[in-house]
Amino acid sequence: MKILAVCGMGFGSSLMLKMTADRVIQKKGIQAEVEATDIGTAESVQADLILTNNEFASQLEGGRSAVKAIMNMASEDEVAKAIDEFLEETNK
């Protein structure tokens, strides 16, 4: 599974979100690659799941990747919930 952590420039909040997602997938034992990127690049990268803030989530929805909005980039609980929701939706 490929997860994109997306912010405006690709090296601020997306890096924080990537580190949080890395911790979550490691704890859950999920095989996934997490990449931090900017909003412009995100639209052209093939990914299963995009994690981002509310503003960028609305811009990225409707593409080929599932999109989940994260309010607190450092919250493992919030990121875990988003990943769990994605996995439930894809396993239906």
UniProtKB/TrEMBL annotation:
In which organism is this protein found?
A: Salipaludibacillus keqinensis
Q: Name one GO molecular function term.
A: protein-N(PI)-phosphohistidine-sugar phosphotransferase activity
Tell me the protein's name: PTS ascorbate transporter subunit IIB
What are the leading ranks of the lineage? Bacteria, Bacillati, Bacillota, Bacilli, Bacillales
Q: Which UniProt keywords apply?
A: Transferase
PTS EIIB type-2 domain segment(s): 1-91
- What PROSITE patterns does the record point to? PTS_EIIB_TYPE_2
GO BP terms, alphabetized: phosphoenolpyruvate-dependent sugar phosphotransferase system
Q: Which domain of life is it from?
A: Bacteria
Q: Which InterPro entries match?
A: PTS_EIIB-like_sf, PTS_EIIB_2, PTS_EIIB_2/3
Pfam families recorded: PTS_IIB
